[in-house]
Amino acid sequence: MPIKQTITQQDVVTFLNRVLESDPEAMRELLKPVLVRDADLLQIDTIQFGLDKDKLPTITLLGLLNGLFGINEENKWGAFVSFSGTECPECGSLYIETESLGVGDNCPSQGCDGKLIFGGPFHFEAVDGQAVPLCNSAESRPA
Q1: What is the DSSP letter of 106?
Q2: d(CA 60, CA 69)
Q3: Mean pLDDT across the stretch 44-66?
Q4: Helices 9-22 and 61-69: crossing angle, nearest 10°?
Q5: pTM for the whole thing?
Q6: Residue pair 94/87 in contact by the 8 Å Cβ criterion
Q7: Helical residues (DSSP H) of 23-136, grouped into ranges
Q8: 143 or 45, greater pLDDT
Q9: What is the rounded CA–CA span in Å between residue 21 and residue 122?
């Protein structure tokens, strides 16, 4: 395949979902937050950053991709979102984006005694900057 001269949001989403389907564990590792090592990176205003437990700035692959495609100036949301949730390691049940089920809760599947753990990502989508807020929104950008 030749090098592409242009790429769309849908191209990225299709590719991310293909990689996710092929190797979910590798994708999980690729999406883990990494500490920002140089403050100059924080000056790229379209990249979405998070904060770790010590309030140090972090970056993820998704935040970097959103930086490449830009953000909606009105609400500071990016072009891509990943959906995650909880899963049960005992029975394999997945619960995507459910507010009523959290990490450590009992699995609601009948006959299962497992405890839910973080699960995801389960799926990627392109957004128009209007519909879905990202967890690593620009509002969490360190000063």
Answers
A1: B
A2: 14
A3: 89
A4: 160
A5: 0.68
A6: yes
A7: 24-30, 61-69
A8: 45
A9: 9
From residue 110, give the alpha-carbon distance in Å to each of 90, 91, 93, 107, 114. 12, 10, 11, 8, 11
Q: Is residue 3 part of a domain?
A: no
**Residue 36 in 3-state DSSP?**
coil
pLDDT, tens digit (0-9, with 9 covering 90-100), for 105-134: 889 888 999 988 877 777 788 876 433 333
Domain count, the chain: 1
Burial of 72 (0-12, 13-18, 19+ CB in 10 A): middle
Indicate whether 1 belongs to any domain: no
Tell me how crowded residue 13 is: count the other CB atoms within 10 A of its CB.
Answer: 20
Per-residue pLDDT reduced to its tens digit, 3-49: 988 888 888 989 999 998 999 888 888 888 899 999 999 999 888 88
Mean pLDDT (whole number) for 93-98: 71
Closest CA to 79 of 123, 57, 51, 47: 47
- Is residue 57 a part of any domain in this protein? yes
Structural domain boundaries, residue 66: 9-131
